[in-house]
Amino acid sequence: MWLRSAGHLSRLSAVSRVRCLPPRRFCNAAAQSVAESNVVSETQTKYPVGSKHHGYTVSRVENVPELSLAAVLLTHDKTGAQHLHVAREDRNNAFGVLLRTIPCDSRGVAHILEHSTLCGSQRYPCRNVFFSMLPRSLATFINAFTGSDMTLYPFATLNAKDFNNLLSVYLDCVFFPRLEEADFRQEGWRLEQESLTDVASKLQFKGIVYNEMKGAYHEQGRMFQDQIQRNVLPSNTYAHDSGGDPMDIPDLTWKQLTDFHKRHYHPSNAKFFTYGDLPLDNHLQRISDHVLTQFERIEPRTEVPSEDSWTEPMRKVVNCAPDPTATEGDKKVVTSAVAYKVLSGCTEPLENLTMSIVCHLLTSGPNSPFYQALIESGMGDAYSTGTGLDLSPRNGIFSVGLRNIAEEDTDKLESIILSVMEKVAEEGFPMEQINAVLHQLEIDQKHEEQNYGVNMLLELTMSVWNHDGDVIGSLRRGELVDQFKAALEADPEFLQKKVRQYFVENQHRVTLTMVPTAEFMGERRLSEEARLQKASEALSETDRQNLLAEGLRMENAQNEISDVSSLPSIQLQDIDRHVKEEELSTESVDGTSVQYCLKPTNGLTYYRHLSSITAVQADAVPYLPLFCHLITRVACNNMTYQQLAQELKEHLGGLSASCYVAPHYIDDQSIEQAILFRGFCLDRKIPYLFSILSDIFSNPHFDDVAHMKDLIKMRATSIKASLTPSGHHYAMASAASSLSPHGRLSETFGGLSQMALMRQIADSEDLTEVQEHLRQLASSVLDISESRLAINVEAAQRDTVENSLLNFLSGVPRDRTDLDGHVQFGNFVGESKKRLFSSKALDVSYASHSVRTVPYSHDDHSHLAVLAHLLTDKFLHREIREKGGAYGGGSVMKNDHFTFYSYRDPSPVKSLESFTKAAEWAAEGAFSDTDIDEAKLAEFSKLDKPVLPASRGDRQFLRGISDKARQINRDRIFSVTRNDLVDVAKRYILADEVKHGIAVIGPESQQLSDSGFEVKQI
Ligand SMILES: [Zn+2]
Questions:
Q1: Where does the pLDDT of residue 955 fall: very low under 50, low under 70, confident under 90, or very high at 90 and above?
Q2: Cα 188 to middle of ligand 1, angstroms
Q3: Ligand 1 centroid vs 15 CA: distance in angstroms?
Q4: What does the pLDDT look like over 121-168, one tens digit per residue?
Q5: For the CA atoms of the chain, what is the radius of gyration?
Q6: How many Å lie between the centroid of ligand 1 and the Cα of residue 305?
Q7: 381-435, pLDDT tens digit by residue?
Q8: φ and ψ at 534, to 5 degrees?
Q9: Are strands 82-88 and 93-99 parallel, antiparallel or unpaired?
Q10: Which residues are catalytic?
Q11: Which range (92-101, 130-139, 893-902) has the least confidence?
């Protein structure tokens, strides 16, 4: 899995796999401005080195003041289990257990085990512990990941009782799972008749991981990163696909799965992590009593050796699935990159940091040598996936290359890459660029992201901890940066020498080319067919009968309501009745409305700016997303685009623009449409934030056609690549688009039509018309008269902000007078639509069904929000994932749409039926009081996610939703009754007059076109 952030569809990313990481941030740690908190100082004094606690001995304890934390490392005497505790004044406590898992084939054993452990355990013998726990918990993060050499089970929660509940469940599932054969068949793979009423019907492979990986083999980006690891480190576990290759998965046996568990899921092979303000003592006692005392030490022998260095480079060509959005006339293109083994092991924190900086300087932004040599060469559309440094395996890997280049250009690409390395080794990097990276490191330490504890765990795991590196040393960021600066000062050629050592003189490199071919999927399909044929021939009549009986048993088990009474749960009375108030103030500064939130922000200033787009002419509206993308990347005022990029990196933490559309929270005939700017910086850089904004607002230039073409190609490529990992978002946007004005506009901004427009622009030679639209948009959007701002800053900085803000406001255009931010769509008539967006290159589908309901302020809105959780957890999960074999599915209430979805779905027709059946099931009211309570808990868990310093006040600022309105909504959720749920299911989903938007993205389907679906090629 790609560590997608857990958004409102977090369930989709639940139980996934880490295979390849996105280009890494150096550090996403955030220091709180608490000087020395109690929990930190107490931890230090209570756990001196050598002291013993519950069978553990402390081996190291250190204070890290720049992150306001203390870290304690312990070893369990009897089993050798390791434990890292990070004490920090943070209520969002986190836990993780990390196991080094090293498969020696591509049968998917580690991945299937990760799924199967969460299917029931000794203490919690119910069918699906993981998914059953979701509605019984207030977790701010809960998931499981499989990487190429590790498996990780993390969670985080703000509630102490919930922490202990989840800890008990995770410990029991990981170390004492039932691992029944039925779980293996359900989660891994099984043979089954296509029809369970016909013993002679064709056989098929089913299984959740089997289907998940079938989908994954369509993702070119994932495939490419996977192939890089396999080919740079071919001697050990990285040669295999730990997620499982569908061609190999059916070779895995249940016995192999349980054996793998015995060896790898053992305390002697485990590392435990706890984080937050809860006391360590309690954690140690619970883990020791529940797990460690039950085991004797073993020698798991899971160390991964360092890959021996080669004496000469390699070349490799592999095939992959074609791009599902490609059309027949497209020229044949490939992805190619040069990948190096760098670092003899990712276990040295300073060397890791140095190489992170070097790799960032090499590739990031328009001033980097590879951007200039590759992106601006026009040979390809964008960097190849995974460009940058990957510190997750035993040896680090750096790769750089291009997507969508002509096959004959691969030699040329390789020689450019080698010559850039030589040039950099000769000339080095400009000091201003090095300083800009150091500035970004400083920001990263202060800028707080969601789930600090879990992020820290992931960061530590991926680089150093899984391979027994210096885990506490790598937490000492400030010290590492100082050491880096000292090294650079002592030797100005420090970085050049690294480039020489790791790149110029390094023969351990692969030039990898990946060629999309129609045959790739064809061959895989044929091989699956042949395998099924062989299996079919080997079956006797009795075997067939047995197989059918097993299939029926599984279906019955899936239909049974699982008894989850053994699982612990948070109760509604544990939930706070009151909303946390936001403490905001709003005032007018030079005629513009500014919302302030004056709370601690770790020394950062956060800025938001909504600028109305009501003045934009209709034909220019589809160009707004492109405008937003370009506006912070093209030249402006007196700056070239390179200068602007340098300014942004040197002075700001980030500056972005995006399209914003939302229905009014009371008036359902009115929507707000705007551009949302977001920026942030260190407090000492406040004047720069506003001066850069002034430059951008006063005079953006859209005349450098070559540069714009590079940006457009990169953007079109990244949008296209999002289709397979985010197909459900596209399906949901299409489904909603015919029902409401904001559904329609959201689709225009971020749906398949936007994807098509970007492709068309990227393919066109002449940009004159596009430039015209962009200039027109600049004149109507970059105008302050119809804007409002929000600023989150510490009280002491308020005057500085206000002075800079006044300068900014007085200098930017303010010519519009006749506008209102909201647009009325009283005459909008929704219509029912059924559409299939098909591509021959897709094997699985994404289905969605949407209905329009009521705005936030309406009573029924809260009822529908609870209904969405009820249907997801108590009906759709079973029908769509367990029975249907899709990777995920559910329903969400967002804005005023109630929308069903399925993800990586082998049978979309069945899922569409399940969506309606779900509503019918709800309308019958045959669910328990516990089900209702759990659905409410799930909604509270969503509403009560911690609000980060950057987002405080967003609900009020963006939607106008006040604390009072939120309290009314909260009260309504507490009081939802069975009748309310029955009633809204009937009225909003099942009633005759309801309009239905239905969309499927997937392979061609006769069945859908026969049942009245309008069919379009993607
Ligand atoms: Zn999975």
A1: very high
A2: 9
A3: 5
A4: 999 998 889 988 988 999 999 999 999 999 999 999 999 999 999 999
A5: 28
A6: 27
A7: 999 999 999 988 999 999 999 999 999 999 999 999 999 999 999 999 999 999 9
A8: -60, -45
A9: unpaired
A10: 114, 187
A11: 130-139
Q: What residue has token string 């040069």?
A: 338
CA distance 763 to 779: 26
Q: Residue 509 phi/psi, 5° resolution?
A: -145, 155
Residue located via tokens 């209905």: 851
Give distance in angstroms: CA of 250 to centre of ligand 1: 16
CA distance 373 to 370: 5
Instruction: Give the count of beta carbons closer than 10 Å to the beta carbon of residue 372.
Output: 13
The pLDDT mean for the chain works out to: 91
Which amino acid, residue 743? Answer: G
| 3 state SS of 308 | coil
> How many Å lie between the centroid of ligand 1 and the Cα of residue 110?
10
DSSP 3-state percent helix, strand, coil across the chain (nearest 5): 45, 20, 35
> Which residue shows structure tokens 């936030």?
856
114 CA distance to ligand 1 centroid (A)? 8
Distance 145 CA to ligand 1 centre (A): 8
pLDDT at 336: 97
Of 136-145, 211-220, 702-711, the least confident: 211-220
DSSP conformation class of 639: B
Rounded distance, CA 792 to CA 679, Å? Answer: 11
pLDDT at residue 943 is higher than 90: yes
The Cα–Cα gap between 484 and 816 comes to 51
**3-class DSSP assignment, residue 150:** coil
Listing DSSP states for 924-991 in one string gives: HT---HHHHHHHHHHHHHHHTSPPPGGGTTHIIIII---HHHHHHHHHHHHT--HHHHHHHIIIIIIS
Q: How far apart are CA 224 and CA 318, in angstroms?
A: 9
- Of 160-169, 319-328, 967-976, where does mean pLDDT reach its minimum? 319-328
Distance CA 972, CA 1 (A): 37
CB 767 within 8 A of CB 709: yes
- Residues 743, 1011 contacting (CB under 8 angstroms): no
Q: How far is the CA of 887 from the centre of ligand 1 (A)?
A: 8
Residue 521 Cα to ligand 1 midpoint, Å, equals: 21
Residue keyed to tokens 């379009």 = 1016
> Cα(679)–Cα(38) distance, rounded to whole angstroms?
34
Burial of 731 per CB tally in 10 Å (0-12, 13-18, 19+): buried
- By C-alpha distance, which of 471, 476, 477, 480 is closest to 73? 471
Q: 173-182, 241-250, 460-469: which range is least confident on average?
A: 460-469
Distance CA(824)–CA(821), nearest Å, equals 10
835, 847 contact by CB (below 8 A): no
In degrees, rounded to 5, the angle at the alpha carbon of residue 715 between the alpha carbons of residues 709 and 718 is 140
**Distance between terminal CA atoms of the chain?**
25
Structure confidence by residue, pLDDT tens digits, 657-702: 999 999 988 887 888 999 999 999 999 999 999 999 999 998 899 9
Instruction: Quick: pLDDT tens for 752-800.
Output: 999 999 999 999 999 999 999 999 999 888 888 889 999 999 999 999 9
pLDDT bin (cut points 50, 70, 90) of residue 313 is very high
Q: What is the pTM of this model?
A: 0.90
pLDDT reported for residue 654? 95
Report the DSSP beta bridge partners of residue 898: 851, 893
Determine the pLDDT at residue 759: 94
Task: Give the whole-angstrom CA distance, residue 895 versus residue 977.
Answer: 22
pLDDT higher at 666 or 861: 861
As a whole number of angstroms, the distance between CA 443 and CA 680 comes to 9
CB 349 within 8 A of CB 480: yes
| 702 alpha carbon, distance to own chain's centre | 32
Q: What is the CA(938)–ligand 1 centre distance, in A? A: 22
795 CA distance to ligand 1 centroid (A)?
46
What is the distance in A from the centroid of ligand 1 to the CA of 686? Answer: 44
